[in-house]
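Re-run with default settings, no changes from the original entry. Doing this only to confirm the output is reproducible before filing.
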Amino acid sequence: MNSQGYFSFDTYSISDDRKSLYFDYSHILPDGNKIPFKEKVIFPYAISTSISSVLLNQILISLHLAIGISYWKLYCPSHIQIRGYQLDSFQAHFWNTVYTKGLGEFFFKNKINFHGLIDFPYSEKIVITNDVVSTGFIPVNNKQNYLLGIGGGKDSIVALEMLKQAKKDTTGFILYHKNEDIKIKKEVLGVMGINSLIVEREIDKKLFELNKSHKVYNGHVPITAIYSFVGILLALIMGYSFVIIPNGKSSNIGNLCYLGEIINHQWSKSEEFEDLLRKYLDHSSLGRIAYSSILRHMNELEITKEFIKHKKYFNVFSSCNKNFRIYKTHKTIANNKELRWCGKCPKCAFVFTMLSAYLSGGEVEDIFKKNLYKDPSLIILYKDLLGVGDLKPFDCVGTPDEVRTAFYMAYKRNEYKDDVIMNMFIKEVLPNMK
């Protein structure tokens, strides 16, 4: 693999029934061969023709660029072409940042030097102002209605219950791939008792085929950035005033330093990305739709403390990423029911600890169907979560300080004193806590 070829953002289009969007890309390899890609995004309702075409194009351009990150990273060419539209310098800088910081983990794991690698082309002649869409724009309605991203875990549940308490008119939305099982997300929505909008992605099959070939780069992409732009487009076409992607402040903390930069698995969930996106929306005439996270002021312990007030979700929610893989390989049957937690990944170990800080051992075990503190195979993972191992796990988990505090709270209740994980905490972590 090398960077002598180039990547092209080719075209985007709307289907005749205006329910589907098509995004086209291509890699031109160093030998001149072309690999085209097409992604389809299917919306539950048709996109109205009354929406300003200029405004609609701004968000479609944004979604074209956001989705393209999954295809660009296959070969990571330094040369990028954009066909059919141009960016101004502000927009180009935004996408340089999103690709560079959003792919930080990917660059680290693939040992790629990202400095100067991504350079979106732009034109000094392009000037985008709010005046561009002042004529013929049908504004977002004046109702205080909210569109909330639903992930199936505790964050979206806490956000929804906070919005309910504030008597906000809220609809949930889900973005999923056609091969992804969204049973858990739908069950959470059912308990929430709110309306929902479901958007489907059809990722080009060649992407998966190339990944399996091991002849291309593979790894984590900033999926929350894609999710966010889908939410903004939904808000535009369905008339919502606010888009909420519920991220807490713990997502601001990175995992390690690589080539002089902090690498953060959760960068597209961070406050930095949120602020950049709001500025981008304002600049691109899309600031009429407010984008934020209602949980930004809360850490993981505070979010968990709110979550446990809503026991009706205990048997339906899950944060285990193995439930949401596009091609799921993990399936465990217990009591004729599929488990919602694998009990082996960083997310499971982290959420178990957060809940153990507030709930009885019996309540936590009823959720996970086992006591993770009894599993010696998790010692290394828990050391990483506690900050005494090699590396903070590349997953959406809280900070080592939060994990240590949660362990201490569980330790004080004296419920897990005979468990191997708690004994590790008592011997190796507790003596050094202030």
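The first helix runs from residue 53 to 67. The longest strand covers residues 6-14.
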